[in-house]
Amino acid sequence: MKKISKYLGLPILMVVLLWSCENLDVPITTQLTPDVFPQNSTQYIQTTGPVYAAFRGDFAFSWWWTQSLTTDEAIMPARGGNWFDNRNYIAMHYHDWTADNGIVSSLWDWSSRVIGTSNQAISILNESMPEGAEKATTISELKTMRAISYFMMMDSYGNVPLDTLYGDFSSHAKSDRKVVFEFIEKELKKAIPNLNPASGISTYGRPNKQTANALLAKMYLNAEVYTGTQRYNDCVAACDAVISSGLYAVEPRTTYLQMFYPNNGPQMKEFIFAVPYDPAATTVGFNGQMYHARYDVPRSERAKFGLPFTPSAPRSTLPEFYANFNDANDIRNKQWLTGLQFLNDGVTPVKVTTTKKGYDQFYTGSDGGAAYTYQVDLTPNIVLRQNVTLFDCGNDEIAWNMGYRNVKFYPDATSTSRNQNNDVPFLRYSDVLLMKAEAILRGGNATLGHTALSLVNMVRDNRTTTAPWTSVTLEDLYKERSREFTWEAWHRNDMIRFGKYEGQWGFKTNTDTYRRIFPIPTNARVLNPALTQNPGYPQ
């Protein structure tokens, strides 16, 4: 079992952090003060721990839900009333969320919490650490974590308040998205000279130089969305910084799936920045949970994956998205559960014994209580058989087997809870290569002897035995990104940039462009009266 403390230096701290949720300006009360703590290198590291614990907190929940359920990548319908949850998930699919949506609020709460906790740690260490390289690196790491959180807020909400001064408890109005973009860019550029140049165990779970460069590349690739100005040559330059470091490589086809296994970690050649998870971790604040198996594995396949719990299995993909997986030789196909199911020997059918009525709740025969055994067959389409208004497929075996399931973050049979050991990548080397390819296709200058085609084939050569492509278009690249980063919470970002977010898929017909950003949550506006609502949403 991986230990988060091995990578992040997060011993149990006997402090209590009461951080701000919706309002970055709410006071943070703590026993952690420069007068009593920290006083040495070990304690300096401990002081940074709450920032990483806070970031891990909702990364696999509200971040994933807002970035994936709002796209054609994933859908989470109700099944027999389960997972209705006050329309939270339905709204993500229909694009009819409001400022009171719990998922939209959770994303704001979480990113604000990371920013507030970062401000506190930066303030304490600025006062208590002696000047020198150690201080410069530690502060730069914290500022990069804060920049990542601001990136998530800017990407999701557009204009957001900038608050970087711990102890300033006044309400802050929103800053223009372009101003926030420029702040993040400046923070990352200032951090790079002081960030650790190494990768691997020594920096795993903490940002290094190439974390900042990769995030800058992501910013520049989306700069026209964020600021109205294209920055494709800057994207190419940021990608080149990562590439030229020589620290990373595309995982070969034989180990692609292993990147997402429960025993993944710093040995993965592609991970530029990943979020470590450990079900046994006990850290200050909300210990993040990585529940992919709970949501993604059919409940009939508990034995197949050796799970100590019965998964709920509400999440699946849509046929429109799965259509991207059309190459029989592509290793990425193996992350999906589709069609007739077998145990891991590939021969023994996965079977369920129920009743005829239990199999099909709409069965009208007089023998509905008779035993019925069938082989599990996952079907591609989501059909709201029970109640369209309630987004309900039904409460029978047919309903629970609707939708192809993704098990990229492979179920963790070692965990005694629903939590998993799988670390979750945020930035990968293959993303850098595909970002550079896209920037070139959109008009950026080719460098280092690369072309858009050669860069895409660098990734594809490690994913499929099919012959390399001889040409590439933006549409080809969009589909390749869909295959490569499935379930990694980048699809909303991609859809918006490619002009596809207002499209139709599943049951969604809403084409409102203002929904490219989420509303400012009601509870955030209550705590911070200076916040105004985003355009398009009720003021």
Q: How large is the count of helical segments? A: 19
The helicity comes to 25-40%
- Flag low-confidence runs: 9-30
How many beta-strand elements? 8
Number of domains: 1
Report how far apart the termini are. Answer: 49 Å
Task: Give the strand order of the largest sheet, numbering strands 1, 2, ... along the chain.
Answer: 1-8
Q: Tell me, what's the shape?
A: globular
Mean pLDDT: 92
CATH topology: Serine Threonine Protein Phosphatase 5, Tetratricopeptide repeat
- Main sheet record: 2 strands, antiparallel
Helix-strand layout with pairing:
Blueprint: H1 4-8, H2 41-68, H3 88-94, H4 102-128, H5 133-157, H6 177-191, H7 209-221, H8 223-227, H9 232-245, E1 271-275, H10 292-296, H11 302-305, H12 319-322, E2 336-337, E3 339-340, E4 351-355, H13 356-359, E5 371-375, E6 377-378, H14 397-400, E7 405-406, E8 424-428, H15 429-441, H16 452-460, H17 474-484, H18 491-497, H19 522-527
Antiparallel strand pairs: 1-8, 2-7, 3-6, 4-5
Helix pairs in contact: 2-4, 2-5, 4-5, 5-6, 6-7, 7-9, 7-15, 9-15, 15-16, 15-17
